Queue: 2 jobs
Job 1
Amino acid sequence: MYLTKEEELILAGEYGYALQKAMEILVALGEIYGADRLIPIKSAQVAGVSYKNIGDAGIEFLRDFVNSGAKVSVYTTLNPAGIGDEFFMEKQREILELYKAMGIEITSTCTPYYGANLPKFGDHIAWSESSAVIFANSIIGARTNREGGPSSLAAAIVGKTPNYGLHLEENRKATVIVEVNAKLKDFADYSFLGYYLGKALKNDIPYFKNLKPEKTDYLKELGASMAATGSIALYHVEGETPEYRHAIADKLEKIEVDERELEEVREKFNAEWGEIDAIVIGCPHASIQEVKEVAEILKMRGKPLKVPLLITASRAVKALSDVLGYTDVIERYNGKIIADSCLIVSPVEKWYRGIATNSGKASFYFSSAGLKVRLENTEKLLLEAP
Amino acid sequence: MKLKGRKITKGKARGVALVSKKPLSFLGGVDPKTGIVKDVESDIRGESIKDKILVFPRGKGSTVGSYVLYQLKKNGVAPKAIIVEEAETIVATGAIIAEIPMVDKVDISKIKSGQVVEVDADEGEVVIEE
């Protein structure tokens, strides 16, 4: 891989330990994946925030990195934090302080694009958080590989990423056509579709035909679910997403999705209400439109929920909801908006037996953690819940 | 016997090989305090990777695994070197921050647990002592 003089100097340690280590990571990844050079990035999104995920190992590394002068050189935002007991929260605060000391915005959301960090079409970025990666690539048309926590942090510090994978035009072409025969009408239907396809396609780049999503949020959930059950990082939707016109280069295999495939997922996640201890909405973090929809459904319901409702959202969306009056409504019906945190990266298995949700991604992770799951559309969940 | 590979991180080491035929997850798969393998799917479960030349096909699991390698090193229970078939992000990044010599593209079927192995990562070479 070609390195500039400046990059060689960083690698040789002329600019200190942190930059050297970050550069070593980028160069090694570049060599492994066949990059020709490093390219500048516009922003980074760093995962590895929850204490449940990174533990003392992560804290130790971040502390040493901060002490050796690690600073980010591009605009950088963070993934959601976890929530837990006093000990957990103490550790969690320490992690956020360490990231802050590196110059990172401690926004802590999986949906940076709803607030602090919105790339534009064609921007090269280094993002971790699989749902944000697939959103940025597919819906915005920015370019990022599926980075891990450490590699996105290295890119943020150097301000560059190795030029391979989805940074290259030729690697962004569709690899399979997905003909959707099923009629998708709501958020949960996109969860079912995404959950099914992630498992079926693994790391393909699907090109959807016959998909007319009414809302951006539906596409967000489709991508998040595919990225959770598979390792998909980019998809195209005919007539909808920014790169679909040039997405088909060769003759491609075609798969069809009928009602039956969606029904299979629905049947997999059908825990009884008696087993459900909380309703979770906002995986990935809810948009203000999703929050508004919840408030309106609760008003239709007319009586408070017995099973508590937890909505996870970015602080930006929570602030908006407070101002617009939705938070008040939600709290009146035994709901709560949890800002900048994520239940999946919290020790939920200690608190709950079962969860009801509208998210395919949340269903995947909660069931992996051993919880019972009920996956249904928002309206049905909130109207039929005890 | 000399095996040719590719340098991922720099450095040299000599030690006893511990060979796994299965991909290894460091997060949850190796105890960062003791260096003992806990991954239930691993064929070297219960073994200590401390001071070994650790040989396995590739990493798997969470990218946080990189930080576990760093912690193993700080706790003095890290392997002396890592040899894999195919380097990927998790183990490569971990080896860099933990400063563990690492090579990939090595035919690991030639190496047996218990053999004394010398790794020259700078040259991308592995020598199995007779």
Job 2
Amino acid sequence: MALLELRNIVRSFGDFAAVDGVSMMIESGEFFTLLGPSGCGKTTLLRMIAGFDAPQSGEILLDGKDLVATPPEKRPIHTVFQSYALFPHMTVAQNIAFPLRMRKIGKAEINERVKEALDDVRLSDRGGRFPGELSGGQRQRVALARALVSRPRLLLLDEPLAALDMKLREQMQLELINLQKEVGITFIYVTHDQTEALALSHRIAVMNGGKVEQLDEPSKIYDCPRNRFVADFIGTCNLIEAKVTVAGEEKMVLEIDGLGEVTARNPGGELTGSKGVLALRPEKIKIGQQIALESGENRFRGKVHDFLYMGDVTVYIVEVGEGVHIEALLPNSAAGRPRIFAAGDPVEISWRYDAGVFLND
Amino acid sequence: MPKRLLAASGIAAYLFLYLPLVIVVAYSFNDSRLNAEWVGFTWRWYKALFEDDAMLKAAGNSLFIALTASFAATVLGTMAGYALHRYRLRLLPVLIMAPLAIPEILVGVSLLIFFVAVNLTLGLLSITLSHIAFCIGFVAIVVRSRLAGMDESLPEAARDLGASPWQAFRLVTFPLIAPGILAGALLAFTLSIDDFVITFFTAGVGASTLPLQIYSMIKIAVTPEVNAVSTLLMLLTLFLIVIASRISPDSVRGK
Amino acid sequence: MTRNIGKWLISGPPVFYLAVFFVIPTFIMVLASFRHAGEFGGLAPIFLHDVRGAHLNLTLESYREYFSDFIYSRLFIKTLIYALVTTFFCLVTAYPLALLIAGSEKRHRDLLVLLVILPFWSNFLIRIYAWMIILGPQSALSVGLNGFLGMFGIEPVGLLFTPFAVVLCLIYVQLPFMVLPLYANLEKHDPALLDAAQDLGANSWQRFWRITFPLSLPGVYAGIALVFIPVLGIFAVPDILGGTGGIMIGNLIKQEFLEARDWPFGSALSIILTLGALCIVGVAAMVAGRTVKNDA
């Protein structure tokens, strides 16, 4: 049985359907992420799991038992808030002791567990400080310690890294992964940052407009987006209008206006004549002056329309055929050479047939 | 505007604000029955004050009314402030702000008619009930602004970590808004002890307060005793306001 | 469900209190304006009992009285003029002060604002009384002024118990209500705007009239409303400083309630005052709203 099961959850505010029929199962020990742009319903969903909001219809089952009527304080679920919500009038130790006090646990045990928790997040010497005296990263760790000290079944994290700067965020991501492995508690993580979601999660639910667009492992989400929204939202992607002319068992032939025929992988079930887009990741496209054609590859000749120097890589926008623009990446491996091609240079691009996915509208 | 002109007119404005009050304080130490030329320093007007039975009685009344009214208004105003912050009630803000927005004289006369209509003898009770009515709004505003400055997720975090709604209020919300409540109480006390207009209409002949006593002295026979009692009252108010502004800086601007 | 119970438990008591001690009295006053005055003051009964049984004993007499004699409307207009003059002088006095505070260093601002607020937390009567001393016949101001006038052979003038005394004191008690909203507005102005104007060739007066003043209009309107409305109902200032010539509508209301004991007429005056103030505020808000929108 799944640890947490959501069945057809609906929650609307007036005319606006914040969560519109969401169902999912979350397994014990999982690091699960709800990913989507702001307003997609991920935070509303999280608040309903925590108990601060109730669905208008649908069920939230924890170990098979419906939680909807249970108030937040009775749920074995804790939250790390975006603002951390550390009580400013209590010391760090008192903050961490709070959930234990609410459970009427004895003083001696509280002290011992607080001490352990402080050790776990490497803040043993900060127990007597007030939250206002800590740095952002330290506050983050106190919020984690406080939410984990009473060993909940499920930990909800609402964009917990959003307030931190980039360097610290990467470091905290690693710490979060290790912490989750150590304590073995199921995490549900809410974020709008796709790189964060890809780096942290076992599984990701991509949400948009109150619905789940795709629920999969990170690599599946990235490589095999199920629709245009997912392809566009996760990473950068060339999206080229296309029409299926031949649909084979494994491969398919697409017709692209101004470019001609392209071979792509058939995700299954596509019929000749259907319209959609070809989704093509820039880093999967080779670019060179002349490229030897290998079997199963598409190759086109064109010229560099424009380029963006990004430091680690350079993005080339290549014009192929009649007015079709395709982005391709080239890592800047040679020092002191910001670019290999200039605008107007003739180039060739190519990609394997299975690098591109056809997405039906 | 040119800097110098600005500075000069600013200083003139501050002088305009303070000079009258300084004059009152100065004359309270002047050894003359007339508020005219300076004769010499004396404490005698303060001594006279403490031998004036009517004045002492009025001061006692004022203190009783202010303590009772500010206590009740703090309880009711805190509830109102919490309700304003927490719930979307359409009429509540209107009901709470209206007594503060309309001219005081209208509140005074309508309460006078009301007390007579319900056959309540005018006196300490009617004054106290009226003071509670106009202090509730001030406390509510201070408490609400304190709540608005508090992170919404703090009481939620308490609930999330196992606290009941009452525990979340007692252990998290209340300690955090306590300074606002205290500042609100001090403001209510100050407003009550200083109130003249509403008291004037709801006092009847039975009870006098310090402001009413000052009024009758001004109207009938001005003696420097008025300066002395004014100085003491100003000191008290100043003291309370400075404390309130220390506790909760925004609260004092609400008047 | 529990949420609703909590909502009523918390908002119920203050709502109940204000309903009893604010809403009901207001309705009783409205009703009182349509009743007859009692024989010995107060109000006559609402129901009359005679041979035909009980019937309502209401009248428009109080309103008829107000409109039948122009003396009352004249008093109302006079009150409006006092309020306008007071508001104007408050604005010209408060503006430089608010500019000065907003332009001073950040760490001094709170103190300077507190210094504006402190005097108006002192007792209202004391602030009026202070002007009684300053304007009194033996005061340095009166003696000096009359000495000066005497040099030109002009008769000595009394300052106390005149409309001048009333308006001066009204300006004094209302000034902070103008300074605070102006300051709150001016403080938010981006100083880069003035630098940009200077950079583009505006001198200091041009910068003020073209940039600062138009941007401060919302604060100006707020200040005008805060000063103007309370003045309409004030009775203590004219009562103490105005003498017979300086009275305002508030004095008449007070007189009807406490001396003439014609409560229906007093109530009618209160209601006319309220409606008049509401009309003025409504019109002003419309005009101000339009101007502010056009500026934005």
